[in-house]
Design brief:
heterodimer, A: mainly alpha, rod-shaped, B: alpha+beta, three-stranded antiparallel beta sheet
């Protein structure tokens, strides 16, 4: 029987076509298992007296249509996509929170370097420096001509604490995620993988670049408006842009070298798991 | 036997088969067919998405092995899978007992309706 007359070969071609929207590993495994199953079934049918063509046809008939088998495996793969999206989403959100925390540290450094609270505060604080509370603000800095400056100096704390808290929270989430994936990778191979690096790095680079440029724009606008509150934007913009460069650089490397991080041949199971967790 | 009825219990049947010994997909399907005397009208390929789902949940693990000159993926039940099998086995026994009792009580009515 030539290749063109083989029902099993035709079936495997159909299964390959039907599996294109599955993950590459799931598709490869399904094809390999289907082929060995069909060949075993055809061998058993030949032992019952069928000729080769009839045996392969019977094996294919009993196996089920390629589209239905691929669809059932894809539905299970849908779980992988949802889990991957959850893992990647939490990871990126935690990285964003850490970036916010770093910007809080930057604000603190700016204050230590002598940047005024007026520059660090923002328009949202302006109503707090009302005429009613003005005396209390002036008491904080008697040398000031207006109450706005002292109010901003005091209220700029409100810039730092939430940002630092967000950063600490983000770090905690990242560590927890690392522990979770390390434990799961030991027993659920492939089940808790993040989305492909191409996807996550593209999203992260775009999101951080967009945020960085927007923050730069707000900062420039504040500078043009006399510098009032420019610090709150300009302390966050460089952090966002640095993160954009990091993910953009990783994306370029992935595009140049290929989408998967190879695990060295013969690597121990522990190293294979660590490679998958850190990917 | 209704295919939907079997599909709803396929995971349980696969765990039960693998609890006897590790096996690849073809061997699992053959064991299911032989032990049930062909009562389950399952398409043979359906066993693979089900096995992959069980592995995702940590109820079975798999390794690639060379068997009779062919590369096969051999599945084995995990401790978590054995525990799950125990729970489902008890639930199944309870259901069978309950359904039996209901059918015995309905036998006269069922007999009247059959005429």
């Amino acid at each position: 029987m030539t290749e063109g007359e083989s029902p099993i070969e035709d079936y495997l071609d159909q299964l390959f076509s039907a599996s294109t929207s599955s993950s590459p590993r799931n598709a490869r495994y399904l094809l390999a298992e289907a082929e060995s199953h069909l060949r075993d079934a055809a061998t058993a049918a030949k032992q019952e007296g069928m000729n080769e063509l009839e045996a392969e046809q019977e094996a294919v008939r009993r196996f089920g249509t390629a589209s239905s088998i691929a669809r059932k495996d894809r539905c299970r793969a849908l779980g992988d996509v949802l889990r991957g999206s959850a893992i990647s989403g939490v990871h990126l959100a935690a990285v964003g929170a850490v970036a916010v925390g770093v910007s809080g540290v930057l604000v603190e450094l700016l204050r230590a370097a002598g940047v005024s609270g007026r520059a660090l505060g923002g328009p949202a604080f302006r109503p707090m420096a009302s005429s009613l509370s003005c005396p209390s603000w002036l008491a904080a800095d008697p040398r000031s001509q207006t109450c706005l400056g002292p109010a901003m100096a005091v209220l700029s704390d409100r810039l730092v604490e939430p940002r630092i808290l967000a950063g600490v929270g983000g770090l905690v989430v990242l560590v927890a995620l690392l522990v979770f994936r390390h434990r799961k990778s030991a027993t659920h191979v492939g089940a808790w993988e993040p989305l492909p690096a191409l996807v996550t790095d593209s999203i992260a680079a775009t999101a951080f670049a967009g945020a960085g440029l927007a923050l730069l724009g707000f900062g420039a606008s504040s500078l043009a408006d006399g510098g009032f509150g420019a610090g709150q934007w300009l302390s966050a913009a460089p952090v966002a842009l640095l993160a954009a460069c990091f993910y953009g650089g990783r994306l370029l490397v992935t595009l140049e070298t290929g989408p998967t991080m190879p695990t060295p041949r013969g690597a121990s199971p522990r190293r294979r798991r660590l490679t998958r967790v850190l990917a | 036997m209704s295919r939907d009825l079997v599909k709803g219990h396929l995971d349980f049947l696969l765990l039960a088969t693998l609890s006897a010994a590790p096996a690849h997909g073809y061997a699992v399907m053959t064991a299911l067919r032989e032990r049930s005397n062909g009562a389950f009208g399952l398409t043979e390929g359906a066993v693979y998405p089900a096995l992959h789902r069980l592995e995702d949940r940590g109820l079975v693990t798999s390794d690639w092995r060379e068997v009779n000159g062919r590369r096969r993926r051999e599945y084995r039940i995990t401790a978590k899978g054995s525990a799950r099998l125990g729970v489902e086995g008890r639930e199944w026994s309870q259901m069978v007992t309950a359904v039996d009792a209901v059918l015995r009580a309905a036998k006269p009515a069922l007999a009247g309706g059959a005429t």
